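Anyone else keep sequences and structure tokens together like this?

Example one:
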Amino acid sequence: MQATRRGFTRTAAALALLGSAGLIGAPLRAQSARRAAAGKLIVGQSYPMTGAANEIGLAFAAGAKLFIDGWNERGSGPTLELRQLDDGYDATRARANATKLLADGADVLFGFVGTASSAAASEVAQQQGAAFFAPFAAADALRDKMHPHVFHVRPSMADEAFAMLRHCGILGQTRIAVVADDDAMGRAALQAIQDAAAELKMAPPVAAAFVKPGGTQVADAVAMVAKAQPQTVIQASLSPTTAAFVREMRKTGYGSGFMTFSVVGIDPLYTALGKETRGVVISQVVPSPRSNGNVAIVKEYLAAVGDSDQTASYEGLEGFIAAKALAEAAKRAGPTATRASLQKAMAGMGAFDVGGFRINLRPPLHDAARAVDLVYITAEGRVLR
């Protein structure tokens, strides 16, 4: 199932994220004029190699590197030098990494994972006059026009929430509960669900419980949600927490549905839940790498995976797509690109087709095609639409 929609604008949230980056003036212009080495673009990425969300972070980063390695070997355009640092899914470390990467010569920040980490990277990039390309699970506030330096490849949380709520509406499910990580990502997801419910003229969530990110102590959340008697529970949490909640909620006798945002990661969730994953509906923002071999970008990705030691995954495909879009921007910016000219090239990429999957970086949206799939996993691990 697919859903496309206009993203939400949250000016107040965007202003909060802008923070001290609001007054940049001449120093920013000087940074923007910084020229990349002739024929080479240095790409700086910070992501969780360790800690919470490391499975999705490693898969996304591996997919990006897979494309970049092939791009450089083929000599298809400017050489992309990918520099990667571990932030352990910690926003403070992500901010420090962003600062270091740019200070050490990165021309663009790319593929930070997580809402708080992406907000930190955006602020640093704006201060330094650099672009921030393809954040993973960033807050929708970063899509506001106040952040013209941020370019998104994946659909927004608002788009995912809209798709899930619309699906619930089609099924006649009006009592929706939400369980979310108690962090920037979880709060952004809850806001997206509340906004989608209002837009669709549905009732607000009957319960909203926050849980410790990456934790498995979910008893209080289970009690709160069970008392509300929902018809569906939408989760915005990482795989360990999602798995623990599904398992414990079912022990209460709850026999209805579960839905999750794409940040959960299909493979980590199936590893954690096994056959108990059956019936869990998961939002996805790229084509299936398992059943869409007829889509050109999936075919290209699977061929690259086949020549590597990687295993195909949704997050790996997303990283591959993001890197391909970045390479196109670098090619359009030319061999003597500056940070400013690179951003201009990105802004001009309207309705770019990466291979049967279209993205749109055209101003003022700087958004993806925003097509969202809802899939579910069988007890045998098959992913079905």
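And example two:
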Amino acid sequence: MKQFRTPYFFRWIFHRRVWGFSRNSGIVYLTFDDGPTPECTNWIVDTLADKNIKATFFCVGANAQKHPELMERMQSEGHAIGNHTMRHEKGTKTSKKEYFESVAEAAEFIPSKLFRPPYGRIPMAFTKELRKKYDIIMWTWLSYDYHPEVSAAEILQRAQSIQSGDILVLHDNVKSFEKLKETLPQLLKIIEEKGLKFSVIS
């Protein structure tokens, strides 16, 4: 069974990373990884605009370089952006030098102090240096919208566990898009019915 909610011991072990915010805030933080993508980003932003909801987009540098118009749209409409490396490198399979070069290259197209490691994996040895320039943003609830064995119905069922202060992860990529179209409008409704509000990470 997939762990939609990040186990508490992960948050305790890797406590220098941001896993969530105050349980008393009444706010959740919607985030989208891997964009911008022409096929998906405009639909996501349109869907959020219909409800005046703001989100945080962790962008891959290569995509940001290709699609500056989408980067401009996200920011002009009040969404936040974060660095997700230049080419979606996995930290556990990339040298420290190559990884930091990727982060620096992506920063040329993604001006932000927010960083999320692709796959959520990054050696602890990298964390100290990254934290000199970035807040490392992880998550409390992962949608698994990219996973072929996780249905839209299961995602929405598991969304009932979302709480105040949670950071939620969905994906802005072609692989996840059909499932995202099924789930995002209903997910927003579920969260609103809980009386929770949305905010960007800053």
